[in-house]
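2024-03-11 09:14:02 INFO receiving multi-entity request
2024-03-11 09:14:02 INFO entity count = three
2024-03-11 09:14:03 INFO echoing inputs for audit
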Amino acid sequence: MTRAAETAPEPQVVLSARGLGKDFSGFTAVNNVNLDIHHARIHALIGPNGAGKTTVFNLLTKFLPPTRGRITLLGTDITAMKPDAVARMGLVRSFQISAVFPHLTVLENLRVALQRPAGLATQFWRPLSSLRRLDGRADELIEGLGLTPWRDIRAADLSYGRKRVLEIATTLALDPKVLLLDEPMAGMGHEDVHTVAEIIRDVARDRAVLMVEHNLSVVADICHRVTVLQRGEILAEGDYATVAADPRVRTAYMGSEA
Amino acid sequence: MARTSELPPATEPAPSAAPVMSRTLQLALLLGAAVLLIAAPFVMYPVFIMKILCFALFAAAFNLLLGYTGLLSFGHAAFFGGAAYFTAHAAKVWGWSPELALLVGVAGGAALGLLMGAIAIRRQGIYFAMVTLALSQMFFFACLQMPFTHGEDGIQSVPRGRLFGVLDLNDMTTMYFFVLAVFVIGLLIIWRFVNSPFGMILKAIRENEARATSLGYATAQYKLGAFVMSATLAGLAGGLKALVMQFATLTDVAWQMSGEVVLMTLIGGIGTMVGPLVGAGIVVGLQNQLATSAFPVTIITGLVFMVCVMLFRRGLIGEFAHSRFGRALGLRPPG
Amino acid sequence: MIFGIPLQAFLGQLLVGLINGSFYALLSLGLAVIFGLLRVINFAHGAQYMLGAFVAFLALKFLGVPYWGALVVAPLVVGAVGALIERTLLSRLYDLDHLYGMLFTFGLALAIEGSFRWYFGASGQPYATPKALTGVFNLGFMVLPIYRAWVIVASLVVCLAVWALIEKTRLGATLRAATENPSLVQSFGINVPMLLTLTYALGAGLAALAGVLAAPIYQVSPLMGSNIIIVVFAVVVVGGMGSIMGAIVTGYLLGIAEGLTKVFYPEASNIVIFVIMAIVLILRPAGLFGKEG
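2024-03-11 09:21:47 INFO inference complete, emitting structure
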């Protein structure tokens, strides 16, 4: 994967952070983080537990207000914006714990994602059947991610791996410019990991992906660029081979084999 | 791209026969209820049934917020009682016809809802309940002091007038069917609201608010929308009550009234369509029974509250839908 | 004269404000202690305050227990009743949505108040000020009833003692740790359910203590609790329940604000605390002492 990245010119930066920092009542969780996320590239954020990866995610998506620094999305400064507004601009995230609407069916989950872009979210006087015109696009996504047999099953009744796939499907329904995936493979069986990795590679063809991931073989396999966090600061950055060869990274990861 | 389609679904879907049976059953129940409501004023004291209808609408409006949005308001008396004052004032002092007076109450409920909701929505969960309670208590004190409410006396002998200037509502049967019509319209609005694109987003927010935010929904504004709708319909119920009972007093804006509507919804079943109606019937009936005895209703109310919370959190209707019998009938338990 | 108000009236209302503030502080402190660990809004707090006053009243009438004895007995009795209710009923609701705890204690409050109203009627019963505390201090610029001075001092001491207990002692550290991570504390061999019961008893006892202190000032009435509890909720929203000291300080501040409103704009004195609450919510939704986010 990295070979292709080296020969092609660096694509456009869509999301960038400069000097990003977050303090929690005196304790610094994230400090001086600079990141550039490129179009059509998969960027991994790795690091030992407690390194601040999820906090960085929450800062980038505005679920947490940063103490310091600036965030730019598609040329617009989003540092002071609200999380839903950022999502409407095309920066959509997933969560560590699978984020689906458990009592809604797979189809309904996708409808909810599609309602707002289609301007069908605030009508309180129209019947539910007015949502049927979203079904075409919803079924496309359901089929594209292999969820067709479970279309009318409640999300709560799906297997863990399939919930993650559904979550990616609802995220894709927004046609985001930047996708932030928080440990998309966590807790998955071997088969599912492979499936999801393929899906991510697929969706990254025309959008930027930033993912937190512990499974380093997946990172090695599909990610173009890797940033290593340690104690809230960037320890190293580069393609997987460079980062893996870095002695500081090896020290930080003592015991966990790449 | 059938990547994972060879795996069977994790759980079997519910047998598909159930919804059909449920549809027939629902129709039968609806028909039965319609017959009962049309016959009721000829068998029972009409004012009593009209009072139940007002409170049933109030509880259904409250449940729109608690059951379908997950917000517990402890201040709904402000909308109910406030609207009662507004309607009573418009009918008595301004001499407006009943339908316009009712609209004044509805508009007042909506305005109060927007004002209180915009402040309360800034806090979540338990704080939300406390803030709504405090704000409605503030409104109570305001009502105590404002001249138009006539303080402790309230607004008495509110005229019912002529509907659209034609139908004399002093005729008990005419009044009853007017109240019944308003009640049914109110319920239809709630039904539509819950089963609408907007209602779908509310459901999603209740299930997973962070995910709804990450899908680009400004969740606070959706909640505020539900709050205002609930307040508006509570206002409709309060205004109607002022015309039925022909008075508006401090009782309707007091915090005990907010507690009562919580109880009605809890007894009947939070998040069910029928539950609040049943709950309202039980609570109003109980108050009616105890009205002549010295035994205070609050003791019973308090005990029923405790028992419901400890043992029947789904409420009568919710427990029934969950029971083997309810399932066999194909009733869908509340999500 | 201050802003055209006679100094006497001004100081008089300031004193009333301080007295009310003492009760707000004691009650919101108890609510904060209970909420901190149990995550329950104790709606029955007003009823427990009323119970405290009634225990004092009944103990004097039937058993001849004097005021000083009541100061000890009432919190113990009400605390014990609280512990019993927490152990048998309330504790079953912890795994559910926190709103159920609030609804349960709301029902409890209604049942207790309804019963007392049924038995004693809605009107208040007088409770004599203890002999040692009757009379006044003449400060030259104003007359200060000794009992009122005692209430202010006593509530301040109790508030600070509870604050010190929770912020400065080992027991308090355990309590705070249990708030953060109950299963971890449990694994250290600490009996967390017992801790929860004791905390609820402490909160209920504090409310009862406030009730005894209030008995000679206000009349002992079944309605005294529900009148004050909603105001205390507003106090708690303004202060934010994250901090014990925040609850105490906000209680006194809002009591004083209410007293001063009685001087300058009496019509608004009933609602001033709610107005302040609304303003705080608009400007600083987390409350004055609440944590951001």
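2024-03-11 09:21:48 INFO post-check: Confidence is low (pLDDT under 50) at residues 1-19 of chain B.
2024-03-11 09:21:48 INFO post-check: The CA atoms of residues 69 and 202 of chain B lie 6 Å apart.
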